[in-house]
Specification:
single chain; 412 residues; mainly alpha; Growth Hormone, Chain: A; 2 domains; 16 helices; globular
Length: 412
């Protein structure tokens, strides 16, 4: 059964190097890539519920252990900049499998770490290699026919977001019963299996660019200067993820206050609530395939703004907070799907570099949102957090409206 869609995908890729393909992509391959994104991105988020337990193992405070999570994120940003652009030059299947090998070694090193210093280094390497999903998504866009690209990107991105949302819940449960090392031993085993599966199921990839490594990196600036759609998508993505991060980084604080008085484990369970939004957002890709994809971005911004207004007004009750979380994850996922569908239509030979620029933008936005969210919480509690989210999303809608007006005037 696997050979059928391997052969189909291989023929699809072989038929076009930089031109779009015209035949539909086998859904089994799409779901394989979605699951691969979920399993690989989860490695970056297992650590969050485990920091306190790690601190006890190394006789270090949880606050000091926060440097491990920080270095993982910095490693991820470094990998985005230095590894993902290589997908435009080299065989992406080989690159994906190779990086999964590095991930596996880093996971084992985390589990075996004898000191905090070794743990920090292993965490950085783990983050650096966990850019695998950001190589898979452009590959999925390249394999998809133009009429289905939104749906394919939406499905693969749903897998990525679900992996992020569920990683905290899974690692928290396993860590509580088997210890934090068991989480990383289990993840290492999963990565070995995943590498073998992708080695045989992903299609053979062809060279799309003859640029050297230095040229690939220098071309990132050129893409920013010459592609207004990429700049706009980056702004939208940064503000959307910023608002998203402002909520999630402060949710535990909010749930510990009246009237909830919940512990951190309940905050982790809210990741399960967000899965509903992530799954629903795959429909946005279908909308983007049939209608103007930029309209889908505008709708996504409005959905996320409504989520914050809902949680601001009714967040002190579960019946108001839960729908708000669903809308938040739906809007975030929908915005990213529509943004990436837009940028992948710009230059087929530069999809990995386009993805690098976009992901760096949203990474900066997410970091800013985390800072502003905690600042808003310290300043005005839940009102401050929701205020930060609303301001960021209103800013995105202002940019959307201004650029829409410019486009309309230009056409007129």
């Amino acid at each position: 059964m696997g050979n059928e869609f391997v052969q189909q995908a291989s023929s699809v890729e072989a038929s076009s190097t930089v031109q779009d393909v015209a035949t539909p992509l086998d859904r089994r391959l799409v779901w394989t890539m979605a699951v691969a994104c979920a399993l690989s991105i989860a490695n970056l988020y297992y650590v969050q519920p485990l920091l306190a337990d790690m601190g006890q193992s190394f006789h270090t405070s949880a606050d000091q252990m926060g440097v491990v999570a920080t270095l993982m994120q910095l490693g991820f940003a470094t990998g985005l900049l230095l590894v993902v652009p290589l997908g435009d030059r080299y065989n992406r299947r080989t690159l994906i499998v190779g990086m999964l090998g590095v991930v596996t070694l880093a996971l084992i090193l985390v589990a075996l770490a004898p000191t905090v210093t070794v743990l920090v280094v292993a965490g950085f390497v783990l983050g650096f290699a966990t850019v695998v999903p950001q190589i898979i998504v452009p590959l999925a866009a390249s394999l998809a026919a133009p009429f289905e690209r939104g749906r394919v990107v939406g499905t693969v991105m749903s897998g990525l977001l679900i992996g992020i949302l569920l990683a905290r819940t899974v690692s928290g449960i396993i860590g509580a019963y088997l210890g934090w090392q068991a989480v990383y031993w289990g993840a290492a085993g999963i990565m070995i299996v995943l590498a073998l599966v992708l080695r045989f199921l992903l299609p053979e990839d062809r060279q799309r660019s003859t640029m050297g490594y230095g040229q690939l990196l220098r071309s990132l600036g050129s893409l920013i200067r010459t592609e207004p759609v990429l700049r706009e998508a980056g702004i939208f993505g940064a503000l959307v993820l910023g608002a998203f991060s402002a909520f999630w980084v402060t949710l535990t604080f909010f749930l510990q206050t009246p009237p909830y008085h919940y512990g951190s484990e309940v905050a982790g369970l809210f990741g399960l609530v967000g899965v509903a939004g992530a799954l629903a957002a795959s429909g946005v890709g279908r909308f983007a395939d049939r209608f103007n994809v930029r309209y889908a971005t505008g709708i996504a911004l409005l959905i996320e703004l409504c989520s914050f207004l809902c949680m601001w007004l009714t967040g002190y009750w579960l019946w108001g907070l839960i729908p708000g979380v669903i809308l938040l994850d739906l809007g975030t996922q929908a915005a990213h799907v529509s943004n990436q569908t837009r940028i992948y239509s710009l230059n087929p030979a530069a999809r990995n570099r386009l993805n690098t620029v976009y992901m760096m933008a949203i990474f900066i936005g997410g970091s800013l949102g985390s800072f502003l969210g905690t600042w808003g919480w310290s300043l005005a509690g839940w009102n401050g957090v929701c205020g930060v989210g609303v301001i960021m999303l209103v800013a995105a809608l202002v940019v959307y409206a201004i650029n829409s007006k410019r486009a309309w005037v230009k056409q007129a």
